[in-house]
Amino acid sequence: MKSYTRKILYLQKLRAVSSFAIIVLHTFTMYNIVYKDTLSATENYVTKLIPWLMLWAVPCFLMVSGVLLLDQNREMPIKKIFKKYILRMLIVLILMITVFYIVDKLTNHDPFEWSDIPEIWKKIVEDGSWAHLWYIYLLIGIYLLLPLYRVIAKHMDATTMRYICLVVVIFVSVIPFIETITDLSIGFTIGITTIFPVYLFLGYMIHNKILNTSLRMCILLILAGALLIVLLSVINFGEKQEQIEKLLGNTAFLPILILSVGLFGLFYNTDRTYDEGSKACSVWGFFDKYSFGIYLIHLIFLRTLIKVIDFNPFEYGIWMLPVIAVGVYICSLITMIIIKQIPGLKKLF
């Protein structure tokens, strides 16, 4: 089995690049929502298409987690899972929802009062805060079932693992697409309703060569996934247009899965040209170190730009959106560098 330290570089690169891709996704999506009624047809199309093409970022984050969490060389007793992983995510969740609640109050020019505390707890329980925190709830769920996933990874043979992943993909990705475009209501079901564990195992399988992904195959998967997304985005589905767009924005959608696997495999295949002690490893390690924190806080800067400053990039041209994404990334990075100097917060983020 390949050791984690041997492949640390490609994991660092993936997390660093994925964190920026998520900022691009949110930048284009939020500006599309806010200015939708004033956008030209081209601007409306581009601000929808780019987020769909960036949706691979979260699956790649999960595949990285699969490499690390399912590694049989790592000891992962239940006590450690709760103490190191679940407790950390709960603290992060409470802290970030509290911060976002206060930010919302400030941007609405409302003073924060002690009577707001029950409302904060309600938001924590109901996932009623900023939308991107869904990922934290997802991670907590994955950690709770991690002992099961690790047993499967340890004892299931390669053929069975590939078979189970294929079956789940068919039921949670392929069948919903068929139902959407044909008006069929397919009666066959299985007791698994989410794609996310599949991404964990896909990362694990690629990393350990249970699923062979050559460089050529990965490039073909990337091209196929991206082409399918573009083709589906330009076809007029009439009354089904809204349903198709929901699929394009879903990480369980087959073209998103194909694109995600291709990109993960590409990073896996191309990191072999680097040495672990090289300058490249140090540089990517620096950006990777702050990737989780950047994911958590970047919306503060983006929402400030939209709600407080009321900056309209379309007055200058759609090319301003990538500039905004870079600016938000830099601001988030600098903020996380400062936050990580604060005692007690370094290990959280």
Descriptors:
globular; mainly alpha; 349 residues
Q: List SSEs in N-to-C order.
A: HHHHHHHHHHHHHHH
| Helix content estimate | over 70%
Count all strands and give the number: 0
Structural class: mainly alpha
**Cα radius of gyration in angstroms:** 21 Å
What are the low-pLDDT stretches, counting only 5+ consecutive residues below 50? 1-7
Strand content: under 5%
Largest sheet: none
| Distance from first to last alpha carbon | 29 Å
Number of helices: 15
Question: Which shape, going by the Cα principal axes?
Answer: globular
Describe the structure.
The chain has 349 residues and is mostly helical. The protein has 15 helices and no strands. The radius of gyration is 21 Å and the shape is globular. Mean pLDDT is 90; it is low at 1-7.
